[in-house]
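Worked example 2:
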Amino acid sequence: MATTVTHGMRVRLRTGRIRLLGAAALLLMAAIAAPGGSAAAAEPPWSDGPAADRISVAGGRFTDGHGREVVLRGFNVSGEVKLAENGGLPFADTADARKSAQTMRGLTGANSVRFLLSWAHAEPEPGKVDEEYLRKATEQIRAFLDAGIRIYPDFHQDLYSRHLFDQDSWYSGDGAPEWVVKAGGYPKESCGICVHWGQNITQNPAVQDATRDFWKNRALQTSAGTVRIQDAFLATAEKTMAYLAGRLTADEFARVVGFDPYNEPYAGRYDSGQSSRAWEKDMLWPFYEKFRARMDAAGWADKPAFVEPNLFWNSNIDFQRQEGGLLDGGAIGSRYVFNTHFYDQKAISGVFMPGKAQDGQYATDFAAVRDRASALGTTAVVSEYGHPLTGFTSDKAPTVVKGLYQALDSRLSGATWWSKAAASGPVLSANQWQWDLYNGRHHEAMNGNPDKILTAGDAWNDEDLSAVRLDDTGAAVLRQDARLLDRLYPSAVAGRTLAFTFEDRSRDGSTTLNWDRVPSSLPGVARLVGSGRYGMLVWRQNGTTEAPTELHLPRDFDPATTTVVSDLGTVTGPPAYTAHGHTADHPVATAAESGGTDARRLLLSAPPGAGTLHYALVADGTAAPSAELRAAAQRELSAWAQAAGFPN
């Protein structure tokens, strides 16, 4: 039913100055709340705002100001920072940043980005920070904050610096400024026989020596006098953080989650007799402690540092893996987040994994991430993952990326989820690599070579992983199956997530991938789900918050036919969220995501009751289930949840 809310009525609802709206207004609110009603017509939930925006780490989870467990999902913005064409910024201008933020939110429901920054552009001369660069970066960051997307910046580097590489080189890097490289006097770069750019990390002597010098904090003679490399980086990072804290409003800064100090750290060269584990303890962790102090000094004391271990700690190729994972860090606690990457190098190689990814393929790899975070007394984020979308292994991308998301959602394979759901574990926060608005439309002079203009893919070392591109009309469109990227996920849980799964029914060519099938022991649930997508969330209420549990609803989950079966109630076509004070009018309802896009979320409001076990099945409505079928599914799920052995 179409309804109209006048400006005056919105003001009255927002301010609460008029408590009794009159018969006409009550009828209007009822229309808005009717099944299938427009979430956009209703006022935002009372729980939105500064408390929801404020993210910290508590109890081994990301939590918001309401005490809800939060999952961060989104993309890296973006590999464009590695290029020179836009001056080390993700976007040519703020307008492109706003366009990207709105389309990302609308097309995928992303609620976070890892926002890349460039040391080379932030400090083009020793000791001199380029405030114009920081101003432009701040405006582009603000574009995402305004769209309701949280961010955590990352001073990015790969292969240490582009300035190590000759104009005619096969490869390029990013990170350190030119003045650092010139003062370092490094040998001519050469990777030898390399089939992938990443081999430069361990085979290119220039990259190895320069990286080692960073960790050793080598003293360089520069135009500004003697400068120690790591000290210069830390000083620029502090100035950058202070600039952001000073230029963003308090509400904007609340949506900045933390800072990633250094992308994919590696020793460069180990000292004689030094192990990778010892290097993490003696060199990497002291650097993070220094960075943490700089965060505190810059006004970021209440935000965690997103610290990465040795990049090879979780390689899935045995001869590449190195001992690590911050094993000697002790309980690092709430001021740090265990931050790691995962790429299936076997699949990317085309040699070590000849076929496609299968159900449960990455469960063990991501269980290791959960276990390391737990041992460190903090939470985890997988801040990079993905698979090439062109090239000779690109045919694996649909199954690899589906498998990665499956492992982020749960420790379990689809085949075992229903029978072992109590072992599902926490849902991991993650940011996919990458979101590059200019994919396939670059104009990058590789290593400054005007005769080597790169336009294809990501325009960097033959990579092509962007989830988005611009079509011929200039509109942003997804390059991967929308069912894969626009996912149901629990963005805020009023308690502790015990189990979650989402069967996205994404496709590998013309084949629909069905990995998580409802067992025959739940016939009503199986009938209700049919061949459609569905998600299942189980959580235990903490009793300390009145705020609702929220799940992002994929864009093409029709609000009129989406079915929810929960202990809180059953409904097809959930109504729009309305409330009297903090009391929801409907326990199962929908609302627009914050940020002014047409993205939507499901809100589940439970009555007070610490320790209560709750569940919710969300299906995209392949059929119109009767009230009797919903009731049968509810009985089955209630019995299943009670018998599953979920911890108290």
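The longest strand covers residues 495-503. Confidence is low (pLDDT under 50) at residues 1-40.
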